[in-house]
């Protein structure tokens, strides 16, 4: 395969469809995603290489769902395995997903964040409610990935197969409440490059970029929803990850 | 132009995805009991079909893994989509037995749950 041809193709795609956001996101920075740990699929809470205490936060998980390759539901839950929660399913899952309601947060003038609202902290500079979503593809299912219940923001491949190699273009699509979402901020390598300037989905909700890793890829989508009317919140932060693995060469 | 490139990419990726997995584990990937094998990481599961039952053998990097350390089951999905579960019976060494044989065309998931720790291993076979 001529990888250079794909890079040239990517340049054209990028010129047509990519935009960058020049401002940073002044909001909570942590996401949830799935990654393999000791042969099991673990739910990770963190940012970058920070793999924080997800077990103590399991009470904030509101749903865990799994599907086989024909998109039939598989009984799936989280199980505490030492310091990490792992996916516990009755059968292999092609896709597993989770939702976390991370609650109310305020940012104070001194820069500190507290789990509260402006009601308790009237001087807060930011008041928000956070929702986190994770979707992991262990194996591409047959057909498009439908909207998963509870995933207000969802990032899925907009192609039937994932590219096999690092550097090749991957096309993803962000959905907000089931509809293609423009202007969603995209971090293309949340584990290894969490401070990158976000890309942004185009008018049709898609984003195209070169796959970052020949291994685990965790892509994060972020959308700030303005509340209607007078509110304690400046926004609701929706933060969704899509994780998948490009396999390594044979040993 | 863009769609043409993306379509071409999808076709090539699709062709690649249909290639047999060439991953090699540490240790033999060949059956030792005349059955068929599937890998999950470095764990090899061999399925041997008998006239009215199944035998399952489990190894990791050529080392037999004692069956007594697992709770094993088969999750069988018949051609019509009906699902059933068959408990595996641990036998000597790394051998399990299943007291019945799923029908031809059935998808058979071998589910092994470590009694100590609860870690799960899945491999999937298709009955001939």
Descriptive labels:
heterodimer, A: mainly beta, globular, B: 128 residues, mainly beta, Immunoglobulin-like, 6-stranded antiparallel beta sheet, 10 strands, 12% helix
Topology:
The complex is a heterodimer of chains A (251) and B (128).
Chain A (H helix, E strand, L loop, with lengths): L2 H15 L1 E2 L10 E7 L2 E8 L2 E2 L9 E7 L5 E2 L1 E6 L2 E6 L5 E13 L5 E2 L11 E12 L15 E5 L11 E8 L2 E2 L4 E3 L11 E2 L5 E5 L5 E10 L9 E11 L6
Chain B lengths: L1 H16 L18 E5 L2 E7 L4 E7 L2 E2 L5 E8 L5 E5 L1 E2 L4 E4 L8 E8 L5 E7 L2
Antiparallel strand pairs in B: 1-2, 2-3, 3-4, 3-8, 5-6, 5-9, 7-8, 9-10
What is shown here, in short?
Chain A has 251 residues and is mostly beta strands. Chain A has 1 helix and 19 strands.
Give a written overview of the molecule.
The complex is a heterodimer of chains A (251) and B (128). In chain A, 6% of the residues lie in helices and 45% in strands. Chain A has one helix spanning 3-17; strands at residues 19-20, 31-37, 40-47, 50-51, 61-67, 73-74, 76-81, 84-89, 95-107, 113-114, 126-137, 153-157, 169-176, 179-180, 185-187, 199-200, 206-210, 216-225, 235-245. In chain A, strands 1, 5, 6, 9, 10, 11, 15, 16, 18 and 19 form a ten-stranded mixed β-sheet that branches. In chain A, strands 12, 13, 14 and 17 form a four-stranded antiparallel β-sheet that branches. Chain A has a three-stranded antiparallel β-sheet with strand order 2-3-4, with no helix packed on it. Chain A has one domain. Chain B has 128 residues and is mainly beta. Chain B has a single domain (25-126), classed as Immunoglobulin-like (Sandwich), CATH 2.60.40. Chain B starts with a helix and ends with a strand. Mean pLDDT of chain B is 85; it is low at 6-22. Chains A and B meet through helix 1 and strand 8 of A and helix 1 and strand 10 of B.
């Amino acid at each position: 395969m001529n990888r250079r041809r794909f890079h040239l193709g990517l340049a054209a795609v990028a010129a047509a469809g990519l935009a960058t956001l020049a401002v940073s996101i002044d909001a909570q920075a942590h996401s949830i995603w799935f990654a393999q740990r000791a042969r099991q699929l673990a739910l990770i809470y963190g940012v970058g290489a920070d793999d924080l205490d997800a077990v103590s936060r399991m009470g904030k998980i509101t749903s865990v769902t799994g599907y086989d390759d024909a998109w039939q539901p598989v009984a799936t839950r989280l199980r505490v395995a030492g310091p990490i929660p792992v996916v516990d399913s009755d059968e292999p899952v092609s896709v597993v997903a989770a939702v976390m309601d991370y609650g109310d947060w305020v940012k104070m003038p001194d820069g500190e964040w507290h789990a509260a609202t402006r009601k308790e902290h009237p001087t807060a500079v930011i008041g928000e409610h956070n929702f986190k979503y994770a979707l992991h593809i262990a194996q591409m299912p047959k057909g498009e990935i439908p909207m998963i219940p509870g995933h207000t923001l969802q990032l899925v491949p907009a192609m039937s197969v994932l590219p096999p190699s690092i550097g090749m273009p991957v096309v993803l699509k962000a959905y907000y409440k089931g509809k293609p979402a423009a202007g969603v901020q995209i971090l293309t390598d949340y584990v290894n490059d969490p401070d990158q300037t976000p890309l942004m989905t185009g008018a049709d909700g898609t984003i195209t970029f070169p796959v970052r890793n020949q291994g685990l890829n965790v892509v994060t989508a972020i959308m700030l929803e303005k509340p209607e009317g007078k509110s304690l919140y400046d926004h609701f932060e929706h933060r969704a990850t899509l994780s998948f693995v490009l396999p390594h060469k044979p040993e | 132009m863009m769609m043409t490139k993306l379509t071409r990419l999808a076709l090539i990726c699709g062709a690649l995805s249909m290639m047999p997995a060439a991953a090699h584990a540490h240790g033999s990937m060949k059956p030792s009991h005349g059955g068929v094998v599937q890998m999950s990481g470095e764990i090899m599961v061999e399925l041997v079909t008998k006239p009215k039952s199944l035998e399952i053998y489990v190894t990791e990097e050529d080392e037999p893994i004692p069956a007594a350390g697992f709770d094993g089951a088969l999750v069988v999905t018949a051609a019509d989509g009906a699902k059933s579960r068959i408990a595996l019976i641990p036998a000597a060494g790394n051998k399990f037995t299943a007291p019945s044989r799923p029908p031809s065309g059935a998808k058979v998931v071998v589910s092994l749950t470590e009694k100590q720790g609860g870690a799960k291993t899945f491999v999937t076979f298709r009955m001939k």
